[in-house]
């Protein structure tokens, strides 16, 4: 696709003049470009050092026409211009979700929501209610449970997770599949396990664990790749739907995800892994004009052989008012800390017989890296444990050396980068590798992280943002939705406070300044997607992707940050959400 083109030179130059002098004193009326929309009377933080903080912003079509004083914007107001009076409200670039799962967010709104449950008993009750409404043999799906956030555990729990006996009692005939909040484990009743042919003789797959009782019975907990043992039977069940019915479900997911994103001020969403088929679906929606949020999609679940053959067909760079970009590949070297799947340099403190799981081999990811260089794709590798991060940095370096490329311009990323050995921290800045972090993970998981790592190791390795900034690395931000709610305000608050629900701060020496946190959610995320020329700041010529907030994130008292409300979300000059 062609490169993004800025608007006509006059519109840009006149915007600069107005921003600096307050009015076009020597411009002829016939030269003026009237705005479609003007927001005035607020605190407009452009995140662009050249423009700083202003009072008003003018929009023409899908682009920013000018920024400046209220008086300076008056000249852009014509008979058809819509004017929004900000009345002192805070305006900033639209939030860019730096790492999430777009269709997963939509799906999470169609199944049982287990994010807020306090204990195993509540989950069993929710499943029982779903069974009452279900047809015989119908599967029950849910997601969001996290055993470390419950107020109690059954006495017969194994590895800190219940057995499925009570689940079997309320759902003997309906298979039940309940995903962990992290997505790195699943819990199933016996009906689901039997449907998949899992019994005492089923071996653990590479990169996964079937958790069992002492006598060999599966408890229902499947860690990491063990969940894939049920993929075929679930696929067969879902195959009962016609292609048209499945597409309708997918379209609903797109809209449900968009509703959540826009309600939280998210105008762009970096989707951390979609199949080639899913990308084709997104392409179809974009051609229809049916994508309400801009997507930056990472290719996922395609073999190296397939990618080496078809990647050029899927490369999509921004042009015009673009809603779909594809130029990166997602890989996954390890699992999650909560499921004991993060790959560590030393064994877990609370499960000493394991140092985590390798989900995709180093060799396979390294081959992906070489293919990415060949076709000009970015590589974004999930790595949570300190060994996972180290191995990823190592394989990146080997691939660059083999392919004779300079790493600095590639902007390859490590997704999550939650636990980093201190000796590896400087490598991010030195190599130009982007730590794609989710600040909310630190405060959400903080109360139980020391139980996995021990206090000393947790403090030394856990989300060392201050040290990462000092290396010169581009630090980005997000929520990993649906692992956490798609709430940039909550993640911003976690960034600047590292305050946990316990009232304690999670190693607060690594807090971000408010300006740093704002950049991680705007221009830094744009840079991490090669899109800094079209988004991330309120600069004339860039996309008019804007959010209006009820409070000033830069000055409001820290404890009041979570009370900030998204009041207006604008995408491409169109108001897509109003509170």
Q: What's the CATH H-level superfamily name of the domain at 1-93 and 536-579? A: Urease, subunit C, domain 1
In percent, how helical is the residue content? 25-40%
Q: In what range is the share of β-strand residues?
A: 15-25%
The largest sheet has its strands arranged as: 8-15-16-17-18-19-20
Distance between termini? 36 Å
Query: What sort of overall outline do the alpha carbons produce when their principal axes are compared?
Result: globular
Q: What is the residue-mean pLDDT, rounded to a whole number?
A: 92
Number of helices: 20
Uncertain segments: 1-28
* Strand-pairing-aware structural class: alpha/beta
Instruction: Find the count of extended strands (DSSP E, 2+ residues).
Output: 23
Q: According to CATH, what is the class of the domain at 1-93 and 536-579?
A: Mainly Beta
CATH topology descriptor of the domain at 1-93 and 536-579: Urease, subunit C, domain 1
In this structure, how is the largest beta sheet organized?
A: 7 strands, parallel
Q: From the 3D coordinates, which CATH architecture of the domain at 1-93 and 536-579 would you assign?
A: Roll
Radius of gyration (CA) equals 25 Å
Can you give me a brief rundown of this structure?
The chain is an alpha/beta fold and 579 residues long. Among the domains are: 1-93 and 536-579, Urease, subunit C, domain 1, CATH 2.30.40.10; 106-238, Diaminopimelate Epimerase, Chain A, domain 1, CATH 3.10.310.70.
Structure in words:
With 579 residues, this protein is α/β, with parallel strands linked by helices. Among the domains are: 1-93 and 536-579, Urease, subunit C, domain 1 (Roll), CATH 2.30.40.10; 106-238, Diaminopimelate Epimerase, Chain A, domain 1 (Roll), CATH 3.10.310.70. The protein is 33% helix and 20% strand. It is built from 20 helices and 23 strands.
């Amino acid at each position: 696709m062609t490169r993004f083109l800025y608007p006509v030179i006059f519109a840009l130059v006149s915007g600069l003049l107005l921003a600096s002098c307050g009015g076009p004193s020597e411009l002829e009326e016939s030269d003026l470009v009237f705005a479609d929309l003007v927001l005035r009377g607020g605190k407009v933080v452009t995140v662009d050092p050249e423009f700083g903080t202003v009072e008003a912003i003018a929009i023409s079509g899908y682009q920013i026409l000018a920024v400046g004083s209220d008086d300076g914007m008056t000249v852009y107001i014509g008979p058809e211009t819509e004017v929004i009076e900000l009345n002192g409200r805070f305006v900033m670039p639209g939030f860019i979700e730096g790492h999430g799962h777009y269709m997963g967010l939509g799906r999470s709104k169609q199944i049982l929501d287990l994010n807020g449950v306090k204990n195993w008993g509540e989950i069993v009750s929710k499943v029982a209610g779903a069974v009452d409404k279900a047809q015989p043999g119908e599967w029950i799906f849910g997601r969001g449970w996290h055993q470390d956030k419950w107020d109690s555990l059954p006495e017969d729990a194994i590895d800190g997770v219940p057995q499925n006996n009570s689940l079997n009692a309320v759902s003997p005939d309906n298979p039940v599949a309940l995903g962990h909040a992290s997505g790195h484990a699943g819990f199933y009743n016996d009906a689901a396990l039997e449907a998949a042919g899992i019994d005492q003789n089923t071996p653990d797959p590479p990169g996964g664990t079937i958790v069992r009782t002492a006598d060999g019975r599966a408890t229902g907990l499947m860690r990491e790749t063990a969940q894939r043992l049920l993929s075929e039977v679930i696929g067969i069940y879902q195959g009962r739907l016609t292609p048209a019915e499945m597409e309708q479900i997918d379209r609903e997911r797109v809209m449900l995800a968009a509703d959540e994103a826009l309600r939280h001020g998210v105008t762009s969403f970096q989707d951390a892994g979609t199949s080639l088929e899913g990308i084709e679906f997104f392409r179809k929606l974009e051609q229809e004009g049916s994508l309400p949020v801009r997507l930056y999609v990472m290719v996922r679940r395609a073999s190296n052989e397939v990618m080496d053959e078809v990647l050029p067909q899927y490369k999509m760079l921004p042009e015009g008012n673009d809603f779909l970009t594809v130029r990166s590949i997602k890989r996954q070297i390890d699992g999650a800390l909560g499921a004991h799947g993060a790959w560590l340099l030393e064994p877990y403190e609370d499960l000493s017989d394991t140092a985590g799981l390798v989900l995709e081999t180093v060799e396979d990811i390294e081959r992906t890296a070489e293919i990415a260089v060949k076709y000009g794709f970015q590589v974004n590798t999930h790595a949570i444990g300190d060994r996972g991060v180290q191995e990823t940095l190592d394989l990146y370096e080997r691939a660059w050396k083999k392919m004779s490329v300079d790493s600095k311009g590639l902007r390859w990323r490590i997704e999550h980068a939650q636990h980093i050995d201190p000796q590896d921290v400087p490598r991010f800045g030195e190599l130009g590798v982007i730590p794609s972090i989710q600040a909310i993970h630190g405060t959400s998981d903080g109360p139980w992280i020391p139980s996995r790592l021990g206090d000393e190791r947790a403090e030394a390795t856990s989300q060392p943002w201050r040290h990462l900034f000092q290396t010169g690395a581009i630090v980005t931000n997000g929520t990993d939705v649906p692992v956490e709610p798609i709430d940039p305000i909550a993640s911003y608050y976690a960034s600047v406070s590292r305050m946990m629900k316990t009232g304690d701060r999670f190693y607060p020496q690594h807090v971000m300044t408010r300006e740093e946190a704002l950049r991680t959610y705007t221009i830094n995320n744009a840079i991490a997607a090669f899109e800094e020329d079209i988004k991330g700041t309120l600069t004339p010529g860039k996309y008019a992707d804007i959010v209006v907030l009820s409070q000033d994130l830069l000055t409001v008292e820290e404890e009041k940050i979570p009370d900030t409300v998204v009041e207006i979300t604008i995408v491409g000059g169109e108001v897509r959400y109003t509170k």
